[in-house]
Amino acid sequence: MTRPEYAKAGKLVLRLRPVELIDPKELLFSLPTICDQLPASDGAEADGTEVALRDDDWRQFELVSETLLPVLETEINAVWAIHQSARVGVGFQKVHVRSGLPQPIDDQTVPFADVQGLAGERLCLPLRFDGAGRRVTDGFAFQLDEQHVLYGVRSGASVEILGFYPCPPPGMAGLEDLAARCGLLAVDWCRCVAARPGEASFTSLLAEDL
Amino acid sequence: MGLFSRKVEDVEVTLIDDRSGAVMAVTRLKPDALPASFFTSTTMHLGDANCRWCPRLR
């Protein structure tokens, strides 16, 4: 909500939480991995029309060029090690910060027009991070349904990052074709799953909802 | 003062404890005493305590 909006309404309701200090040794991570790099948030000023993602949700389910498979495998093995050695109840004592794939999609291999085709008639919305006052530079998002978002970062007429929050809708039409055409793997980092189009693992990855 | 100058009205601000849903305080403030927007997490000092306003996901 912005100043003109609450000044006009004459009312403002704020939900607050106390700032609490805790012992770092007692801290558990809710996720086994996060992405190291976030895109720049120096686009236009946010006005509330954006799709907002939390930092931790960035690139947790994404498409990665198959040419990057060796790095992808190294990263997935590191996340798997967290599952094996650092799991405590529902959390993790450690988190693997993924830095090996700063650009997960090879240059000019995924046209933005193809991504628009995947989203159908849905409106292309700006993207911002939760808590950021500005939009992600060259960011875009499609609200696929109430729970699922397709988002990414453009580079001219192509896409250099393409992700889903929290995952693609089950059985999403056209995704496997796009992945096959553009040489992409679907990767669910937190579950350590990478799937190639045309294989059963890809279909089963799309059959599940997180 | 100009004939058509407009008085800046106070905003009624209700502070709610996000954990319990209980109303912590209700106050009236000028708009320019509040942040220009609430898209960014904002720490507010209430008496001896620090409280944080956290924007919600979507």
Largest interface: pair, residues per side: A-B, 27 and 36 residues
Provide a count of the helices of chain A: 5
Structural class determined from secondary elements of chain A? alpha+beta
Give the percentage of residues in beta strands of chain A. Answer: 25-35%
Instruction: Give the neighbour order of strands across the main sheet of chain B.
Output: 1-2
Spans of at least 5 consecutive residues with low confidence of chain B: none
Question: Strand count, sense and closure of the main sheet of chain B?
Answer: 2 strands, antiparallel
Chain-averaged pLDDT of chain B: 74
* Structure class of chain B: mainly beta
| Poorly predicted spans of chain A | none
Gross geometry of chain A: globular
Rg measurement of chain B, Å: 15 Å
Shape of chain B: globular
Overall pLDDT level of chain A: 92
Q: If you compute it from the alpha carbons, what radius of gyration of chain A comes out, rounded to the nearest whole angstrom? A: 18 Å
Topology, number of strands of chain A: 13
Give the helix tally of chain B.
Answer: 0
Largest sheet of chain A: 6 strands, antiparallel
Along the chain, the helix and strand elements of chain A come as: HEEEEHEEEHEEEEHEEH
What does this structure look like?
The complex is a heterodimer of chains A (210) and B (58). Chain A contains 5 helices and 13 strands. Chain A is α+β, with helices and mostly antiparallel strands. In chain A, the strands form 4 sheets. Chain A has a 6-stranded antiparallel sheet, sandwiched between helices. The radius of gyration of chain A is 18 Å and the shape is globular. The two termini of chain A are 30 Å apart. In chain B, 10% of the residues are buried. In chain B, strands 1-2 form a two-stranded antiparallel sheet. In chain B, strands 3-4 form a two-stranded antiparallel sheet. The chains are: A alpha+beta (210), B mainly beta (58). Chains A and B meet through helix 1, strand 1 and strand 3 of A and strand 1, strand 3 and strand 4 of B.
